[in-house]
Amino acid sequence: MNLEAAKTILLVEDEAIIAMEEKMALSRYHYDIITAYSGEKAIEIFEDNCGKIDLILMDIDLGKGMDGTEAAKRILSKKEIPVVFLTSHEEPEIVRKTEKITSYGYVVKNSSITVLNASIKMAMKLFTEKSRVKEQKQQLATVNKKLTSTNKALEFTQKKLLDREKELLTREGRFNQAQQLAKIGHWNLDILNNKLEWSDEIYRIFELDPEEFCATYEAFLELVHPEDRETVHQAYQDSLVTKSPYEIVHRIKLKTGKVKQIHEKCVTEFDSQENPVFSIGTVQDISNNNGNAS
Question: Rounded to whole angstroms, how far apart are CA atoms 195 and 239?
Fold first, then answer.
């Protein structure tokens, strides 16, 4: 038994007998048919039933008054919906009229009901796929806009920190030149794909070559000092559970054996189901001047 809800079709046909025959034939395929006998009436019915109509079967030649292509154009200006044109003509100029409108093909009137039903099903399938693609593009645009905003915020924060460092260097002169200035880099973690991106400054802090090192969360943990590794991992996991930023100071052990102390901050973004999807953070080298952890 087919439990799928019946699709509602607006049939626009100016000849009552033909409209009745088409309605009866289509009803056998379990469509709900609403009939309009003019383009003006089709627009009125569509406005009254907007959201309930799944497809429009539009006769091109509707006699006196508005023709089918003009009626379809006005309806489509209000809402996207699949339109299949019906015509008793196959002349190129008739076909060209339908091509100027976002339609889902046309069917010659003397075609069998089997052909008409197949055309309807194909139009609905294409419309559903087109709507899905459009929705995905909109979602992608929203994500890209959000990521762009996040990256701009990080760049702005880094610039402010660098400006402060320069101001500090100028103000305190040669005495502070002997001090190692704070080095800060930023990172982005795509949690779903486990893709980690480091800024150049982080590679300098970790004394790694970007061409030789593949940055992942697991690779980062391997660089954390063994005695701090579980603490760092747990701090990050706890932040995902509590949905709050985290801040931690820990050590890293470089390939050369040198140990550094870093100050790390992180915030995580969550989707509508509250699943973590994206983390951003900063890393600051707070080691003393000789490069060893304090």
Answer: 19
In Å, how far from its chain's centre is CA 48?
32
Tell which residue, 284, 282, 264, 272, has the closest CA to residue 188: 282
How far apart (Å, rounded) are the C-alpha atoms in residues 85 and 58?
Answer: 5
DSSP letter, residue 244: -
Q: What is the largest CA-CA distance in the chain?
A: 99
Report the run of H or E that residue 55 belongs to, with start and end: strand 55-59
* Domain 8-130 of CATH type 3.40.50.2300: yes
- Where along the chain do its domains lie? 8-130, 180-285
Residue pair 7/54 in contact (Cβ under 8 Å)? The answer is: yes
pLDDT tens digits, residue range 92-151?
A: 666 666 666 766 777 777 788 888 888 888 888 888 888 788 888 888 888 888 888 877
For residue 238, which phi and psi values (nearest 5 degrees)? Answer: -60, -40
Q: What is the mean pLDDT of the chain?
A: 83
Q: Are 104 and 123 in contact (CB under 8 A)?
A: yes
| Predicted structure pTM score | 0.44
Q: What is the SS3 assignment for 253?
A: strand
Does the 180-285 domain belong in CATH 3.30.450.20?
yes
Sheet holding 195-198, edge to edge: 195-198, 183-190, 276-285, 259-270, 246-253
Residue entry with tokens 């459009």: 134
Residue with the two structure tokens 């980690």: 196
Helix (H) or strand (E) segment spanning residue 171: helix 113-177
